[in-house]
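Our working data are protein records whose layout never changes between entries. The record below serves as our worked example for the rest of this section:
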Amino acid sequence: MSAGPIDPAPPGGLTVDDLDDFPEDGRRRELLDGVLLVSPSPGTAHQVIAMRLGVFLEETCPPEYHVTQGVDIVMSRRRLLVPDVLVTTDEAATRRQRKYEPHEVVLAVEIVSPSSEAMDRILKPALYAQAGIPFYWRIEVAHRLTVHTYQLNPAGDVYRPQGEFATTVKLAEPWPIDIPVSRLTPRHLPPVAG
């Protein structure tokens, strides 16, 4: 469940630096134009998908890339997003940052949950594209696990679909990828409501 701004919010809203003052309590804190968005810790199925995807990507990625989970992307002084899985340049990762800038990110992945549908399907892809992140994946869990992949268009302002995969994620970019979707699917995927 997402929450609105903290009370009382400073004039002009929060900045990325203000987030360092919050406790490490397992909640995901993102910043959208100075407004704090707080999400609870992801559920088991969400975490299993993120973990398995991270392992598959790490096993195949070339040495110039680095795969990680749940690390901040500082979009601006008043905007910070946290993708579920991300691929950065290895050069950025060697600095051992806790936060990356968009130009250091190659791929951002979001796993849609009931509390993040609008963010993951509409808002985050628009913001990632605006920031110039070359690739975006959205993983849907309703009915069956499906991976939707996108690449930044030549103008560099919106994503165009690369593919929709329910059996095998097979792509040539950002590097040759061949992932059986069944290997990403948790054994105990919760049933879909109604």
Observations:
- The chain has one domain: 42-184.
